[in-house]
Design goal:
Helices cover 67% and strands 11% of the residues. It is α+β, with helices and mostly antiparallel strands and 469 residues long. The strands form two sheets. Strands 1, 2, 3, 4, 7, 8, 9 and 10 form an eight-stranded antiparallel beta sheet that branches. Strands 5-6 form a two-stranded antiparallel sheet.
Length: 469
């Protein structure tokens, strides 16, 4: 029976025939070296010609073909060491049984191994993190402990220095401040020794594979708690030592000043009370006040000695008025000297020297003849008319000297170089007439003798004076 082939069937058969022909051609090419080399050489020559390269010789093309076949068709075997070959053998074995139960077991083994490796790596990472934190905290505690040792040595040397000075006050102060210090230092040393024990135990924990992760965590927690407690204790001790150090330094700085004050006879009981109580502000203020008072006392002693010299100058004064005026200045100067008020004392000393300089000179009293100053004037005081001529006190060179006078108009005393001396109306009019030509011819009205402050008048003068007009 004949059958009719469809077009689809014919196409399929043609495809397989063509594919078989092509495969046979490729196999024939691979199995025929001469033909393969000829085709390769032809293809390379055609390639260089299309590139415009005409300098490529047949010998160069044959050398290229030889190199290609040497790299492409030579067998080198599996590259690598013993482990690489074993893994390749194991891979080929597993590939041969990939459809069986062993393949499932192999995959399960691989997954379990990966999980174990990840777990071990995680534990190692956690252990390392704990280790870093532990080392950092231990270093911090150790550094503070060692720095405290320096403070401790300083405090001990200070205590030794105080003991050598046999200063009972210092002993009392330091004993009070260091009442619990030795006990705290002893506890600090014990705690640090325990911390070192924990540190050694941590180091002995060693590699993670020897302990479970939970045991590491417990060990680390214990160490961390110990470190936190130790840090608190170290901070407390450190502050305590710093306070003591500062106080001892302050005491030493004040001790010499207290002793110096006592040598000068200055009472220091209040200063010592403030110092013992630790009131630095109060003790400093008391010391400053005591030193200021001592300085005033020294100044007072020196000024009182100088005051004796000033008093001796009074012996040259001959009239009661000069003696009385000098006594007033000397009394004020003595009060300033006793207070140690040197600026005020020096001002009074200058005033006395100036007064003595005037008293010990022979001076002339005369009517002022100055266009800018009135020669005479009138006033109504207490309902009565009063007449004045304006006077001045001068030496032979014409230098004016001050007078301390009472102003009967203002009821106050002033120091002036010109003053109005009260006269009767007749004298006033005579002076006015003398100045009718703008010049006072008869100016001399009196004098002051050496050693006297009081003035002697040749004209009829009254006692009243004024200092302003």
């Amino acid at each position: 029976m004949s059958k009719t082939l469809t077009s689809e069937t014919l196409l399929e058969v043609a495809y397989f025939v063509e594919q078989s022909r092509k495969d046979n051609s490729e196999i024939d090419l691979l199995l025929n070296p001469q033909k393969r080399r000829a085709e390769l050489a032809e293809m390379m020559e055609d390639f260089y010609l299309r590139q415009g390269r005409i300098d490529v010789t047949p010998e160069m093309i044959q050398a290229g073909v030889d190199e290609y076949e040497r790299e492409r068709f030579s067998y080198k075997g599996l590259q690598g060491g013993w482990m690489t070959r074993k893994i390749a053998d194991f891979y080929m074995f597993m590939f041969s049984i990939r459809d069986g139960a062993l393949w499932v077991l192999f995959n399960a083994f691989i997954c379990a191994s990966l999980a174990l490796i990840v777990s071990l790596l995680y534990e190692e990472d956690v252990f390392n993190n704990y280790s870093k934190r532990h080392n950092s905290q231990y270093s911090s505690v150790s550094d503070k402990y060692n720095s405290n040792k320096v403070y401790i040595e300083n405090v001990m040397s200070w205590r030794t220095a105080i003991a050598e000075k046999e200063d009972l006050l210092a002993h009392s102060i330091i004993d009070q401040k260091l009442k619990n210090y030795d006990r705290l230092i002893s506890e600090l040393d014990e705690s640090f020794e325990k911390l070192n024990t924990e540190r050694n135990r941590f180091i002995k924990l060693g590699a993670p594979q020897k302990e479970t992760l939970e045991s590491y965590r417990i060990a680390f927690d214990e160490i961390e708690d110990s470190i936190k407690s130790q840090l608190e204790r170290v901070n407390f001790i450190n502050d305590k030592i710093i306070d003591i150090k500062n106080f001892v330094e302050y005491y030493f700085s004040q001790q010499s000043e207290i002793l110096a004050l006592e040598r000068e006879g200055v009472p220091t009981e209040e200063i010592k009370k403030a110092l013992i109580s630790g009131n630095v502000t109060s003790s400093s203020a008391l010391i400053s006040a005591a030193k200021a008072n001592l300085q005033k006392q020294r100044t007072a002693t020196r000024l009182l000695e100088n005051h004796k010299i000033l008093v001796a100058q009074k012996s040259s004064f001959l009239d009661q008025e000069s003696i009385s005026r000098a006594s007033i200045i000397l009394d004020e100067a003595k009060i300033a000297a006793e207070k140690g008020d040197e600026p005020n004392y020096r001002r009074l000393e200058t005033a006395l020297q100036k007064f003595a300089n005037q008293v010990n000179k022979a001076l002339t009293v005369r009517i002022v003849d100055d266009p800018a100053i009135s020669t005479g004037l009138t006033r109504s005081i207490d309902g009565a008319s009063r007449y004045y001529v304006v006077l001045e006190l001068v030496d032979q060179a014409g230098n004016r000297y001050e007078r301390h006078l009472y102003n009967q108009e203002t009821k106050r005393s002033e120091t002036v170089k010109f003053w109005g001396q009260e006269v009767d109306e007749k004298t006033y009019l005579a002076v006015k007439k003398d100045k009718s030509d703008s010049i006072v011819d008869d100016r001399i009205v009196g004098s002051k003798k050496p050693g006297h402050y009081a003035l002697s008048f040749d004209w009829p003068m009254k006692a009243g004076t004024i200092t302003r007009w």
